[in-house]
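The instructor's notes for this session suggest beginning with a concrete chain rather than abstract definitions. Hand out the sequence below and ask the class to guess, before any prediction is shown, which regions might be ordered.
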Amino acid sequence: MNYFKRFLKYAIPYKWTGIFGIIFNIFYAFFTTLSYIILMPTLNVLFEETEKVYTKPELTSFSGQKIKAYFNDLLNYYVTYNNENYGAEKTLMYIIVIVVFVFLLKNIFGYLGQVCLAFLKNDVLKDLRIIYYNKISNLSIPYFSDQNKGDIISRATTDLNNINNTYLTLVIIFIREPLNIVFTLCAMLITSLELSIFIFVFIPLAGLLISAISKKIKKQSGEIFYKNGVFLGLIEESISGLKIIKNYTAEALFAKKFNDQTVEIKNLSNKLSIRESIASPLSEFLGILTIGSILWYGGKMVLIDQSLASGTFVGFMAAAYNILSPAKAIAKANNNVKIGDASAKRFFEVLDTEDSIKEVSDPLEIDDFKNEIEFKNIYFKYNDQYVLENFSLKIPKGKTVAFVGQSGSGKSTLANLITRFYDVEKGEILIDGINIKNISKKSLRNLMGVVAQDPILFNDSVKNNILLGNTNASFDSVQEAAKAANAHDFIENLPEKYETNVGERGDELSGGQKQRVSIARAILKNAPIMILDEATSALDSESEKFVQNELDIIMKNRTSMVIAHRLSTIQNSDLIIVMRDGKIIEQGKHTELLNKNGDYAKLVAMQTI
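After discussion, reveal the predicted structure:
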């Protein structure tokens, strides 16, 4: 129930909606009971078993028996009065009108309670979706490298819907249904103490049996939700990598993975359904046993002992049967608590995840870059393998530094570290002498424009993808950035020009076009520090040359870190760093390094062939 209590905190802003929902459901429970009680005088009139009372009674005492006798005599007085003056038919009509009115009130309050519940559920669901999205968008990159994308999506959809539907429904069920039972039991106790004893045997017996059945539901629910997450991840991977799957004719392999996963989910769902489904028929069967006992014992009171009016007995039976539905709802709710807890555990695990890239309590806000970037004796490793060891380098403001070397030498890692997508294990990264860990992540990243090797575009217009660099920029500025990235001409030829939607992951554009839009985005940001990670790798030779000329012009006014495999694009750099196994093995300008005839010269020679 800890998850349940925690979940209810999110409903506090909408407490009045919840309070009105509770009030309406209390009235619903009251009029539900009253609708069965009101049947008793109706049936007694039909059976002509109403005791004749000619004098209007007075309440002389507030004891339970006196109150019961008073209301019974008062009702009989009015029935007698109407029978004597207007006839039994008109009396029956009056009672029927009252019965209809009571049922109308019952359904009105039930409807209002359901509407309040729906509003409350939708409000809380909206808030939790926003909280979840904000949480995952603020978690650091290392978290997602260890997670299944489908599982993250499943927690935000399936699990959140389960929590919302079970927990908020439980609030109403645990208020309305127990009250329904209490009101009905009170009415039955007043009507006949002897018959009511049978009901008290049924409720605890059903509760014990159903509780025993539902013990494993929470565990199995958690397993199903996890498998659904893996299932969604497999679909996402299959769609993203469909070209590769088809190219390697691996359809059968992935189909087998998909089939295996769905079979596992089916088997777990079947086991869970067995346990879930048995609660309702079991409670109903126990209820019928109780009803059978009441029929036997109550029938004796009516037919043999004649100590109970037949109309009262039939009304009592209807009220007794009214207990079955609330009892079944509570039994089912007990199972749903287990399902809700399993989903809540998975959902709140994400909300409780601590960001591995933490900010200090009072981070510095900086909006300018003045002197230099310094990597000072830094160490970094992925898992147990060091990628950078005792790495040191200073990059003065306004200089362009290029990083070259074999794959895995640590080049891209430097870009990830300076943007604080990851944190160093040891050492420091300083900007103007300030450790970047003491700078707020937002202001740090505002200093940098990044063009990654794999251009990432969003399912939106070309214009809006470029505007990510500066959401306040004018359309003229967007066009200027696109021209600088050699993107303007192809954009103008698109069906809707800058308003053309680029599709999922930008798949409506070619690789080179996506890269140019990505470069335009970085140019529009106009950040003092540029990080280019294979920025021209997806361009054809002609576009690469044009874009590189533009980048050279742009980088002259900025501090730039350029990570490149194509060495022809970095020949004008102020400094070239040659890396191997996380260490600097050579550094200098293009001509200097060629003259050394070392690793850099060999790399140039290989690309010249």
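Then share the key points. The first strand starts at residue 372 and ends at 382. Strands lie at 372-382, 385-396, 400-405, 426-431, 434-435, 448-451, 529-533, 559-563, 575-580, 583-588.
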